[in-house]
Amino acid sequence: MKIVKRNGRLEEFDPEKIRRACIDAGASEEVASDVASYVASRVHEGMTTDEIRRLVLSRLSAEDPAAAEAFRFYDRVAKGRITFEDGKMVVVEKGRLYLGRQVKDVGPRGLSSPEEVKGILEELEEDLRYGVSRRTINARLFALYMAVLKTGKMSPEEKKEAIEEINKFRRSLGWKPYVPKKPVT
After folding, report:
1. What is the model's pLDDT at position 30?
2. How many C-beta neighbours within 10 Å does residue 93 have?
3. For 163-169, which contacts have Cβ atoms below 8 Å and span 24 or more sequence positions?
4. Distances (CA, A) of 37 to 34, 43, 71
5. Domain ranges of the chain
6. I need a labelling partner for 86 at 20 to 30 A (CA). Which of 63, 124, 171, 179 fits?
7. What is the DSSP string of the chain?
8. What is the pLDDT of residues 22-76, one digit of tens each?
9. How far apart are CA 17 and CA 140, in angstroms?
10. What distance in Å separates the CA atoms of residue 131 and residue 30, rounded to the nearest whole number?
């Protein structure tokens, strides 16, 4: 079954992509598989990836709100997309965006430097001070970690530096650091 990508290209629907994205957001294998099955049962020929994304976020929000939050956070830091409550989103190519308490410069999609990761960690620290739950912060940290591992815009050394910054933040909260399962490339 063919679905329509954001760029208008047709692509074969692959529920495995949904399962992996949910796991990358911190969902369990069971929840990720359930979300992928749910979406697969509702996908139809010609459905857009935006419509599929709404289904994913709806189901994931019901089953694992922290993972849904991390999914949205990952979209912002790795893909330059901001999700609103009704599941719609806006793509931010470049410019300034108001994100609550402060205006942020938004660049092209994908993390590009350890300094950018440090800025996001400062934002998470501020969120924590303003009452965002530790569970949500933990989910966002995992999403940030996955975004660092997946970016093609940083060298392996820069990725390691960014991961160390994330782990420094985790240790400051009394949490175990992330250890990559395979070499950082």
Report:
1. 97
2. 9
3. 165/114, 165/117, 165/118, 165/121, 166/117, 166/121, 166/141, 169/121, 169/124, 169/125, 169/141
4. 5, 10, 18
5. 2-63, 73-172
6. 124
7. -EEE-TTS-EEE--HHHHHHHHHHTT--HHHHHHHHHHHHTT--TT-BHHHHHHHHHHHHHHH-HHHHHHHHHHHHHHH-EEE-TTS-EEE--SEEEE-SSSEEEE-SSS---HHHHHHHHHHHHHHHHTT--HHHHHHHHHHHHHHHHH-SSS-HHHHHHHHHHHHHHHHHTT-PPP--SS---
8. 998 889 999 999 999 999 999 999 999 888 988 999 999 999 999 998 888 887 7
9. 20
10. 30
| Residue 149 token pair | 């591992």
Q: Do you know the residue count of the chain?
A: 185
The residue behind tokens 């999700």 is 83
